[in-house]
């Protein structure tokens, strides 16, 4: 279904919500799958575009479910208790969150679902987060620590760094999309431990 929509993509306006629900986009998963450890699990979110229900030779019901986001699509296999628990909610045009094992076979990346959820599509606070730090207080160690903190809180909010000189003037730097974060108290707490209680004046 990718690229075939006459009007807006059905997920238009939900990109921030999807980013908050998942660990990575489907395109990122496909790109990184070959470097992941065997059996590694990840969480994705997207729109169900097809549900192919089948029955094994032993009489067990299962399904191949295609899920897509704004960038790509992937097939997710549902077996056993996971299928039984989710069968009624596996429907085309349903927005879902799926956690599963990544599988790579014959250059094709797919997932074996281990958890399934139909999320509540609530609005997400997308306001940028600005970290204020005196320029002279920012050394290599602080930069590395900041990078680690941002990586632990993936989300949809852009991050900006305001570097203050001795006169109080600020040079504002904007981090790339891979450092977008989710607004939450644990993120703010980690920031304040490293950069002081006044580093987030507008959070």
Secondary structure blueprint with pairings:
Elements (H helix, E strand, L loop, with lengths): L14 H7 L4 H7 L8 E15 L5 E8 L4 E6 L1 H7 L8 E11 L2 E10 L11 E6 L5 H12 L2 E4 L1 E6 L5 E5 L10 H11 L8
Parallel strand pairs: 3-5, 6-8
Antiparallel strand pairs: 1-2, 1-4, 2-3, 4-5, 8-9
Which terms summarize this structure?
2 domains; 5-stranded mixed beta barrel; OB fold (Dihydrolipoamide Acetyltransferase, E2P); 22% helix; 35% strand; alpha+beta; 203 residues; 5 helices
Describe the structure.
- The chain is of the alpha+beta class.
- The chain folds into two domains: 15-117, OB fold (Dihydrolipoamide Acetyltransferase, E2P), CATH 2.40.50.140; 129-195, no CATH class.
- It has helices at residues 15-21, 26-32, 80-86, 140-151, 185-195, and strands at residues 41-55, 61-68, 73-78, 95-105, 108-117, 129-134, 154-157, 159-164, 170-174.
- The strands form two sheets. Strands 1-2-3-5-4 form a five-stranded mixed barrel.
- β2 (61-68) and β3 form a beta hairpin.
- The radius of gyration is 21 Å and the shape is elongated.
**Estimated radius of gyration:** 21 Å
Total domains, how many? Answer: 2
Query: The CATH topology of the largest domain is what?
Result: OB fold (Dihydrolipoamide Acetyltransferase, E2P)
Q: Give the ordered list of helices and strands.
A: HHEEEHEEEHEEEH
- Main sheet strand line-up: 1-2-3-5-4
Unreliable parts: 1-7
What does the overall shape look like? elongated
Secondary structure tally: strands: 9
How much strand?
25-35%
CATH architecture of the largest domain: Beta Barrel
- The structure class reads alpha+beta
The portion of residues assigned to helices is 10-25%
Average residue-wise pLDDT: 88
CATH superfamily of the largest domain: Nucleic acid-binding proteins
């Amino acid at each position: 279904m990718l690229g075939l929509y006459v009007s807006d993509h059905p997920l238009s306006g939900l990109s921030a919500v999807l980013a908050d629900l998942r660990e990575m986009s489907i395109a990122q998963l496909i790109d990184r799958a070959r470097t992941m450890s065997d059996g590694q699990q990840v969480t994705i979110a997207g729109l169900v575009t097809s549900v192919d229900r089948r029955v094994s030779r032993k009489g067990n019901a299962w399904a191949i479910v295609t899920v897509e986001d704004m960038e790509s699509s992937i097939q997710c296999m549902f077996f056993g208790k996971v299928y039984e628990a989710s069968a009624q909610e596996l429907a085309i045009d349903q927005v879902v969150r799926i956690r599963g094992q990544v599988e790579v076979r014959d250059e094709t990346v797919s997932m074996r679902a281990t958890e399934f959820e139909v999320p509540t599509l609530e609005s997400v606070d997308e306001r940028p987060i600005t970290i204020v730090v005196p320029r002279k207080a920012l050394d290599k160690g602080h930069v590395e620590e900041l990078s680690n903190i941002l990586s632990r809180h993936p989300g949809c909010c852009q991050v900006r760094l305001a570097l203050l000189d001795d006169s109080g003037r600020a040079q504002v730097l904007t981090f790339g999309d891979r450092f977008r974060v989710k607004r939450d108290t644990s993120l703010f707490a980690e920031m304040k431990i490293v950069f002081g209680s006044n580093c987030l004046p507008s959070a």
